[in-house]
Design a protein that fits this description.
This protein is mainly α. The chain has a two-stranded antiparallel ribbon with strand order 1-2. The protein has one domain (2-62). It has helices at 2-21, 24-29, 41-62; strands spanning 35-36, 39-40. It contains three helices and two strands; from the N terminus they run H-H-E-E-H. Helix 1 runs antiparallel to helix 3. The chain is elongated. The longest helix is centred in the last third of the chain and has 22 residues, at 41-62. The protein starts with a helix and ends with a helix.
Length: 64
């Protein structure tokens, strides 16, 4: 019972992290006319943050 509660709390924290990463003030910081390896900075940030959230979600869900 306690492990599912901890897992639920971690998933809620990931939800809040995702909201913070994709919210207005943080997105405007990366809306610059520069590129990273030929990719616009905003697109690079969005896909990197998205990949990070997926990796963290998989870690939390698959952890025993």
């Amino acid at each position: 019972m306690i492990k599912s509660n901890v897992k639920g709390q971690r998933l809620a924290a990931l939800f809040l992290l995702g909201n913070a990463l994709f919210n207005f003030p943080l997105l405007t910081l990366f809306n610059q006319p520069s590129t990273v390896a030929g990719i616009p900075l905003l697109y690079f940030y969005v896909f990197a943050a998205w990949g990070l959230l997926i990796a963290l979600l998989a870690f939390v869900v698959e952890k025993k």
